[in-house]
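pasting Sideroflexin 2 for the record, 171 residues
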Amino acid sequence: MSKMEGDVSGFNIDAPRWDQRTFLGRVKHFFNITDPRTVLVPEQELDWAKVMVEKSRTGVVPPGTQVEQLLYAKKLYDSAFHPDTGEKMNVIGRMSFQVPGGMIITGFMLQFYRTMPAVIFWQWVNQSFNALVNYTNRNAASPTSLRKHHPWWAAGCLLLPWPQLTVSTFQ
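structre below
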């Protein structure tokens, strides 16, 4: 009997899968929960993952459940549900969407750099995307106000395009 097919009665779903004291263990954990493929998982499967994780925490899992299924449920749960609130996160704000979303936006920023309105628009899109990712993955245990975030978002939208606009003006 392999480790993945073993008895789940003593399985601790919250225990790290990889040794978090090592760099490689932390990298494996990060890549596991930021896997872009988890963005494409249907809502019903995410809800199933949440139920499985919650049942595993109470020690009540359906008969025939394998460790591999619990590990997959935990991966989906960690990638889609906020660790502090337990609420399902916005798809665009999830860490698993940051790389594909950022690549798409960067592609548009590289393509449409010739006019000032385009630079400002794509800078606004980029800054808004990053603000959404940061807000979605915030520490929800500490209260935060949107009033604190708005000035920084506005400053990023207004100030960050200027170096590129200056360079493109002198070409």
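Residues 164 and 170 are 10 Å apart (CA to CA).
The longest helix spans residues 116-136.
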